[in-house]
Amino acid sequence: MNFPLYIAKRYLFSKSSNNAINIMTLIASGGVVIASAALFIVLSVFAGLKDFSLEFSSFVDPDLKLMPSEGKSFQWTENDKAAFLKIKGIANYSEIIEERIIIKSENKNLLATLKGVDKNYLNVTNIDTMVTKGNWITPESNEVVSGWGISNNLSFGILDYLKPLSLYVPKVGKGQASSPKGYYNSVYVNNVGLFEINEELNNNYIFSDIELAKRLLGYNTEQLSALELKLTPDADEENIRTQLKAAYGNKFNIKNRAELNDALFKMLNTENLAIYLIFTLVIIIALFNVIGAIIMMILDKKKSLNTLFNLGTETKTIKSIFFLQGSLMTVVSGIIGVSIGLLVVFLQQTFELVMLTPDLAYPVRINFLNVLIVLATIFALGIVASKIASQRITHGLIQS
To answer: What is the DSSP letter of 263?
Structure first.
């Protein structure tokens, strides 16, 4: 049997004759338990928020989006389509026109982004489920669906024939125009629906049929801004990317849903890291109690240590006893804390104990990588704390 480990376990699980030391040991262990549980719960909340954001973006963002690597548009020929159809793993795709435009309603103007979509768009995204008032556009019509923010800023509603809505975009080319209207292409449209997704999309996006967008922008029949793809459930994204690169070279920039929302995910990851560092600092503070408890235990066991020393136990071995005791204390406390955290997160997932809104529970997700991160943090810091405390043992202290 490992002698230092045996003695360390005896010291850890047996009560001291000094009640103050027992209380201090309980406080030290409790601090580590609470800190590790809190760290795991917070990391689980951020994992849930990331999933929630990604799930929410699935209403408008495709699995993959192909955009031109140069310029704002590209030519999508019959040969390109034929090569595209040979790629396995793509369930559906939609042709997209996207450009900044001016929306005019009576005497009010607003800059927005027009997104022209084809009839396959609803097979790629679920944006029609986010239309809270009215209906989605009819293919090959002059209908549009606007965000609630645009509607509020320009004071128009749905099927509002008394307030004509027109879209303008500057004409491409040089030279003078005979009148101010000659500088712009324009089209009158009828708003048939309002969507509500998030503040950015609500205030900036308006959807139309792709043919209307082409007509407004002066695009030819083969000219597109992007392709949006929906993958099959068993598709390998990396394999599809490889096939697209092989078929089209560097013609496209390919982005998945997370890359399309890179600003959001960078923010979430930065906040996640900041919270992790803050709670790691809390754990470090809690481990000062562990250091104090071990030092108090050393002082309380001086007579026993002197006996062990006289029986031939080396100072290095005695140091190992208290190093192992401190390490065991943090390991056991960390495991208990993570177990409590797992229980809390499981209860939140199952019973929705904490609500974000009256209809939405606070999103959490059990991620076993977070379990490893918390345990590794506790173990590493606990080992350092135990090493610091055990170094207080010297030859003079034992014999004094």
So the answer is: H
Q: What is the per-residue pLDDT across 326-385, written as a single tens digit (0 to 9) for each?
A: 999 999 999 999 999 999 999 999 999 999 888 889 999 999 999 999 999 999 999 999
Same-domain check for residues 229 and 277: no
Domain shared by 140 and 256, yes or no = yes
Dmax over CA atoms of the chain, in Å, equals: 108
pLDDT at 398 over 60: yes
Is the domain of 131 the same as that of 246? yes
Instruction: Go through 18-35 and write b for each residue having 16 or more CB atoms within 10 A of its CB, e for each that does not.
Output: eeebeebbeebbebbbbb
Pick from 230, 260, 290: which residue ends a domain?
A: 260
- Domain range for 232: 64-260
Whether residues 392 and 283 fall in one domain: yes
Q: What share of the chain is helix, strand, coil (3-state, %, to 5)?
A: 55, 20, 25
Number of domains comprising the chain: 2
Residues 53 and 126 in one domain: no
What pTM was estimated for this model as a whole? 0.78
Q: What is the pLDDT of residues 71-121, one digit of tens each?
A: 999 999 999 999 999 999 999 999 999 999 999 998 899 999 999 999 999
Cα separations in angstroms, 69 against 100, 202, 243, 392: 18, 27, 17, 63
pLDDT by residue (tens digit) across 218-268? 999 999 999 999 999 999 999 999 999 999 999 999 999 889 988 888 888
Is 268 found in the same domain as 256? no
Q: Are strands 205-209 and 108-117 parallel, antiparallel or unpaired?
A: parallel
Strand intervals (E) in 257-335 = none
